[in-house]
Amino acid sequence: MKAPRRLITAVALVGAAVVALTGCVYNAIPDDKSAAPSRTPIVEGIAPDLLPFYSQELTWESCEGADAGAYDCTTVRAPRDWDDPSAGELELALIRRAADSGTPAGSLLVNPGGPGASGYDLVADSAQFAVGSVLADAYDVVGFDPRGVGRSTAVACFDAAGTDAYFFDIPAAPRGTPEWEAELTARNEQFAAACEQNSDGILPFITTEFAARDMDLLRAVLGDEKLNYLGYSYGTFLGATYAKLYPDNVGRLVLDGAIDPSVPSLEVSTTQAIGFESALRAFMAACLEAEDCPFRGSVDEAMADLGTLLASVDASPLPAADGRRLGADSLMTAIIAALYAEGNWPILRQALSQALAGDPETAFLLADFYYARTPAGEYEDNSSEAFRAYNCMDYPNDLTPEAEAASQQRIAAEAPTIAPYWEGVDACAVWPYPPTGTRGEITAEGAAPMIVIGTTNDPATPYEWSVALADQLASGVLITREGEGHTGFQKGSTCVDKAVEDFFIDGTVPEDGLVCQ
C-alpha cells in the first residue's frame, strides 16, 4: 500500500441488512399515509446568489414503486459548485414519509453512511427501521441521496462487467511484487478514467463540505428553521461538518458510530484494520462455543487457522459457479461485511466452513452484499463509485514513507490476520483531481447540544473516534454502548434508544458519559 487508501466503507446499516439473508424479516411498512404538505422555504439571511436555490418551492409526488400514499418524493436543485453558484446545477433526490402522528415536529433527515450509501433507499425500505417507530411517529422522516449518490446527480464509472473485473479479478503477479503493484495501479487508472468520462464533470465537486452545504439547502426548502438529523457512521462526519459550517442552524443532531475528523487517512486505515481484527477475534471466541464452528482450540489457534485459509485461497483461489474465483481479497471482503453486526456471525461461520471445504458460494454472497451486487451480476447502486469519489477528494494526500512504514508495522503487530490483505496501492493517487478536504478537529462553537454514540467494539468506526469527536465538539455529549457491531441506536440497547428518542422528542440532553449495556 499505501494502506491509507484501504478505507472501509462505513455504512451503519449494512450489517443489519445482511441479517436478512439469514431469514430475519422486518416489520412491513405501513401504508395509508397522507402526503405531508410543503412548508414555506426559509430564506432569511441568504446571500442573493443563493436565493434561487433556497427559495425553491418543492413539488411532492407519489414515489415510483413505493407503497401508495406511504411516501412522497421530490428533487431539489443545488449548486454544482458552492463556491461559484452560477457554474451550473445538480439534483438531489428526496423521499419523505409523513409522521404517523399527523402533527410532525419537523423534518428528520437521515444519512446511513458510506460515503455513498443511499438515504433515499434507507427510508424507502422502511422509515421505521431507519429511525425507529417513536421517531417515525413524531417526525416527517426524510431520506436523501447526497450529491454523487444514487438517484441524485451521480458518479458513474464502469458497467457491471467492468465493475466485476475491478473488484474480483485476481492479479496475475504474486502479491506484493512490483508487477502486482503495477497491475493494480493500471486498474485504478482505468477506473478513475471511466469515472471522469461518465460522471458529467461532477467529480471535483463530490466533497463532504459541499454535501453538508446541500443539507442546509434541504433544511431550508423543507421549511425547517433548524436541522434535525440522524447520521450513522460516515454520516457523523457529514453531520459534524454541517455543525462546523452552520452552528446556528443546528437543531437536534445525533451522530452514531463517529468518525474522528482530525484523523488523517493513514491513521484511519490503521485503526480500522485493528478494529476489524478485534471484531474478528470476538467472532472467533463466540464461534468456538458453537457446534457448527469450523475451528477448534483457543482463539489464537483458530485465528492462525483462519490465516492459513486466507493464505490458501490466495495461492489457489476457489472457483465459483458464475466463473469468478474467490481469492484472499474477496474472502476478506466477505469477513468484513459480516463483522458489521453480531447478528451476522452465523452466516460468517457458514461461509468459512464452506470455504474450508472448497465452496466459495456463501463467501461470495457476503462479498456481493458488501458491493451491492445482485445474483444476476448487476449492481444495485453506485455506492462503491461514490465512496471512492468522496474519499479521494476529502482526504489530503500528505503521506510520508516513514509514516507508511510505521503504519504497516503496527497493523502487522496488532492485526496479524488481516495485515497481509490490508495493503494494496493508493487508488486515490491516480484520481483525476487533487483532494480539497482538510483534516482537523471540529468544535462547532455555538451549536446546540449534539449526541455522539460510540460502541466499544465497533470495527468500522472504532470507539475512540466517538470519544474524540464528543470531546472536540463544544456541545458534544457522549453515549457509550458496550457491545459488538457497528453503531449503537436500535441495536438492542433500551438505554441508548430511550436517550436518543427523548432527545429528539422533547430535547432532553442525556448525561455526558452515559454508559449503556
TrEMBL record:
PROSITE patterns: PROKAR_LIPOPROTEIN
Domain Peptidase S33 tripeptidyl aminopeptidase-like C-terminal residue range list: 423-516
Keywords: Hydrolase, Signal
Pfam families: Abhydrolase_4 (PF08386)
Molecular functions per Gene Ontology: hydrolase activity
Identification of the protein by name: Alpha/beta hydrolase
Keyword Acyltransferase among UniProt keywords: no
Region forming the signal peptide: none
